[in-house]
Amino acid sequence: WGSGARTPLYESVKALNARALPIGETLAGMQWLTTEHAGSVPLGGTAFAPDSVVLEVEGRVVLGTFVDSLGMPHLLVVNSDSSAARTVRLTLPASRRVEQFVARGNWAPLPGQSVHAGWQVTLALSAGGFTLLRSFPVLDQSNAGPGDLSLRSGANPARGSVAFAVEGARGEARLELLDATGRRVWSRRLPIGSSAVVWDGRREAGGLAARGIYFARLEDARGVRVRRVVWMGAR
Question: Which one, out of 25, 29, 108, 153, has a CA that is 20 to 30 A from the CA of 5?
């Protein structure tokens, strides 16, 4: 002790640092939102609660949620079991997909499957292991055909108000604005046949929303469409 000699733990700590450093550097410039526990909750910890990014968790893990400067949620997923490898399953809304951190600036799509609640991905975590994911809405509507549900916005970035055009909605539909953390800011139920709606920047809870990135989510009986909107504030 104190001699400077390497202990048997040196190589383990060296390997841990090599894995943790690039993830730490990636998260360093982001805003931390929450740390939640699934499977078991330690004294003073916060239990996992479903939100617009993660709906369900199967497994004993710690979830740290961060958001980058573009409003994209990132999830640090840590195996709470330090003595055994575990398989973890995360279920996201059907309108979201996931990429997994590989190296600095390098991400790879994480395969998943459709389940009753949405889109599920599976992670194999070593004992005490961890990984970093980033979650993003499925925005591509290039394959939408005539009559398909679609959502388009006017000027983007927008100042003052945002006009949305809705096409192909079957029956009643709902349009809602989510902030970068997935919290609902505003919503409207669209009567049958509605084709346009305007958001003037006001929150349902009162007052104006802050400048920033929002996600407009349109849902009808057939599915969901999502658009990213940059709101520059009131005129």
Answer: 25
Collapsed DSSP state (helix, strand, coil) of residue 11: helix
Find the length of the chain: 235
Question: How does DSSP classify residue 200?
Answer: -
Q: Which residue has the tokens 């809705």?
A: 166
3-class DSSP assignment, residue 12:
helix
Contact 230, 156 (CB under 8 A): yes
- Looking at the DSSP assignment, which residues form a beta bridge with residue 200? none
Average pLDDT, the chain: 84
Encode pLDDT of 27-57 as tens digits.
998 888 889 999 999 999 999 988 778 899 9
Q: Are the beta carbons of 131 and 143 closer than 8 angstroms?
A: no
List the Cα angle 201/205/211 in 5-degree steps. Answer: 35
The label of the residue with tokens 């710690």 reads 62
Side-chain half-sphere exposure of 187, counting CA atoms within 13 A? 10
CB neighbours of residue 176 within 10 Å? 19
User: Which residue in the block uniquely carries the two structure tokens 């096409």?
Assistant: 167
In this model, does residue 62 exceed pLDDT 70?
Answer: yes
112, two tokens: 């998943």
50 Cα distance to chain centroid: 11
Q: How far apart are CA 81 and CA 62, in angstroms?
A: 10
Q: Which amino acid is at 129?
A: G
pTM of full prediction above 0.70: no
The DSSP call for residue 231 is E
Tokens coding 221: 């009986």
Rounded distance between C-alpha atoms, residue 128 and residue 61, angstroms: 9
CA distance 170 to 23: 43
